[in-house]
Amino acid sequence: MTDLDQLTQSLARNLKRWRGERGFTLDALAARAGVSRGMIIQIEQARTNPSVGTTVKLADALGISITTLLDYEQGAPVRLVPGSQAVRMWSTEAGSSTTLLVGAEARGPLELWSWNLMPGDGSASDPHPEGTVELLHVTAGTLTLVVDGAAYAVPAGTSATFEAHHPHAYRNEGSEPVGVTMAVSIPPVR
After folding, report:
1. 157 backbone φψ class: left, alpha, beta (φ>0; ψ -120 to 50)
2. Are strands 97-100 and 87-91 parallel, antiparallel or unpaired?
3. Exposed e or buried b for every residue in 16-42, given b needs 16+ CB within 10 A?
4. 69 and which of 8, 59, 104, 130 could share a cystine (Cβ 3.0–4.6 Å)?
């Protein structure tokens, strides 16, 4: 199965799932998104690959991120996304591009962090409040991400997301510095 086939199947599965979870009929989603009913049927049957604009309209109408709508694998407490599975959204002949590295459904405050971990260093974190999500992208080296006692090797070019209400730690067990860009989404206070 090609990347495009996998993306088409994932979009079909996720669109059906989220339309069902929201209780939207085909007509209701079509009206909310400004996308024809026929197009939604074709997408849900994995018979077409919609434009980025159409995909964004559908995600917005469902109240979810485009990442969630395109996501191949959902449900695990930690999800690693190799660079080969990141979604190229836009590119030009001149070499400009945007790539969706990783995303998560989250509401509330959002923080962006830059980490540098030297060989042998690490940092442990107590569990954050329920609903906190961390997204990270390793830019150099191999990060050892430990979540709820399980260790994950996250090499350069790979992204990950996890539910940060589990105890977690970041370690550099390698011989070269590790660089990480991280976003932390914190649920709003109720």
Report:
1. left
2. antiparallel
3. eebbeeeebeeeebbebbebeeebbee
4. 59
Under 8 Å between Cβ of 178 and 142: yes
| pLDDT recorded at residue 104 | 65
Tokens of 80: 């690693």
Gap between the Cα atoms of 134 and 112, Å rounded: 10
Contact between 102 and 66 under an 8 Å Cβ cutoff? The reply is no
Report the chain (190 residues): mean pLDDT per 10 consecutive residues: 78 89 91 95 92 86 80 65 72 71 68 86 86 91 96 96 92 94 78
Residue with tokens 């969706």: 100
* Nearest alpha carbon to residue 86 among 184, 183, 162, 156: 156
Q: Are strands 97-100 and 150-155 parallel, antiparallel or unpaired?
A: unpaired
- Per-residue pLDDT, 74: 52
Coil, helix or strand for 23? Answer: coil
What residue type is 50 in one-letter code? P
Determine if the pTM surpasses 0.85.
no
Strand, helix or coil at 80? strand
